[in-house]
Every structure is written in structure tokens, then in C-alpha cells.
Design goal:
The protein is of the alpha+beta class. Helix content is 51%, strand content 9%.
Length: 247
């Protein structure tokens, strides 16, 4: 039986930097991943670049492996390894437009509606899973870049989740709860957000919530829950202003 990788397509695309992922997608879609084989706890392939490169990635983690290219010889994740991982998770099948989308920017769905009880529970669970990547930094300086990658992965996962939500007071409340959890992590949870990854995500969600208020005025009532709250960067103030009667 085929050995399925322990990572998913979402894991690959959300944990990989956008430029490398885009190049890997191009390699995969243009048939440059050849001689793909399953080994013991690993996959191997010959990926055609400026020359043929022998590549291997583990079944457990796609970023553990090797490649004969310059980056691979420096123990740096390269597009050839990511392309091989894509072949493993897709089993050679085509990627859809959504498969290739990394969701780096929060967008409003513009779709009015509420989630069912089951859907709401599923979304809450997905948010909790994504939040695990946004964790305290307490390691040596040499792992700082890996730590920042973890923050980016968490925020990309959250971006996909929130961008697909329908617009309603229900989902506005869900988003406010999520933002307060993130804010608590930033203020008291030991998060090192010196590159602004988490803060930038919060700002994008606040902008989206302002659009929610235009599409569904009931969302403004939810924003009142932010009164008397003091956040790290004062992101609550624009939403509190929207919650007050105009004129």
C-alpha cells in the first residue's frame, strides 16, 4: 500500500515561505518532479532544475530531507524538496486554484449568513489548532527564524479560516474572541512579534470587522463587548467607535 505522508497540503503551503512555495508549485505543475519513489519513511525523486537534482524528503516532515542543489547542500529547505512533498501529498494529481493559494492577506467573504452549530464547533477547533503555532519564544537566538516561521504558519492558517467565514453577529463575536486571545498572547504570553506578523494579522481582521459592520449592522452590537478593554495596540478603539450611534 502507498505510504501517505503525515503532513497535509495545508501544512506544506502554510509553513513554507510564499516565494519558495510558488516556485515549487511551478516545478510540480510543469512535470519537473520525476522518478518519484517511496522509500522507508521517505520519498525520493529527481527534480529537473538547471540540472537534475536528486531529492529526498521524510514522510514525517517535508522539511527534513536532502537535495543536491546549492541550498540543499546548505541544509536549507529548497523548492525542489517542497515540490517533492507536493507530489507526495497530491499523489501526482493536479492542484486547484485554492490549493495554490497561501492566504497571506485577510479578505472578507461578503457572504451574509451564520454557521450551523456543527460548523461553528469545527471552526473553533480549527482556530485553536492554528493558535498552537503562535507560542512563546524562550529558546536560543539560533532558532529565532524557525520561531518566526511558526508564527507565520499560524497566522496563515488563521487567515484562511477567517477569510472563509460568512458575515454575521455570530461570526463577528467569534472573531472578537479570537482577537482577544491573540492579544493576551502578545501582552502576557511571551510572544516575540518583533517582525509584526501577529500584530499585522490582528490589524487586517479589525479592518475586515469594520466591513462586517457595513454589511450587517448587528455586528456593531458585538463590538460593544470591547468597551473597557485595553489591548496592546489599541486595536479595539475603531470597533468601539463603530458601535456607538452616529450623528
Amino acid at each position: 500500500m502507498p505510504v501517505r505522508p503525515r503532513y497535509t497540503l495545508d501544512k506544506v503551503k502554510f509553513s513554507c515561505d510564499p516565494a519558495t512555495f510558488e516556485r515549487a508549485v511551478h516545478l510540480y505543475e510543469t512535470g519537473k518532479v520525476t522518478q518519484f519513489e517511496e522509500g522507508i519513511n521517505s520519498y525520493s525523486a529527481v527534480v529537473l532544475g538547471t540540472k537534475p537534482y536528486r531529492v529526498s524528503v521524510e514522510t514525517r516532515r517535508y522539511d527534513y530531507g536532502s537535495c543536491e542543489c546549492y541550498l540543499g547542500q546548505q541544509d536549507t529547505l529548497c523548492k525542489h524538496m517542497v515540490a517533492t512533498a507536493l507530489h507526495a501529498v497530491m499523489n501526482g494529481k493536479p492542484l486547484t486554484d485554492d490549493d495554490k493559494k497561501q492566504h497571506t492577506i485577510v479578505v472578507c467573504s461578503n457572504r451574509i449568513g451564520e454557521l450551523s452549530k456543527t460548523e461553528l464547533g469545527s471552526v473553533k477547533k480549527s482556530i485553536t489548532v492554528a493558535m498552537r503555532y503562535i507560542k512563546p519564544y524562550n529558546g536560543p537566538s539560533r532558532i529565532w527564524f524557525a520561531y518566526q516561521s511558526s508564527l507565520a504558519e499560524g497566522c496563515r492558517c488563521l487567515t484562511k479560516i477567517v477569510s472563509n467565514l460568512p458575515v454575521s453577529g455570530q461570526t463577528a463575536e467569534l472573531l472578537i474572541t479570537m482577537l482577544l486571545r491573540l492579544d493576551d498572547k502578545l501582552c502576557r504570553g511571551g510572544i516575540d512579534d518583533s517582525d509584526g506578523t501577529v500584530g499585522g494579522f490582528i490589524e487586517e481582521v479589525v479592518i475586515m470587522l469594520a466591513k462586517y459592520a457595513v454589511l450587517d449592522v448587528d455586528c456593531k452590537k458585538v463590538f460593544r463587548k470591547l468597551e473597557n478593554k485595553k489591548t496592546c495596540f489599541g486595536w479595539e478603539q475603531p470597533l468601539i467607535t463603530l458601535s456607538k450611534p452616529q450623528g
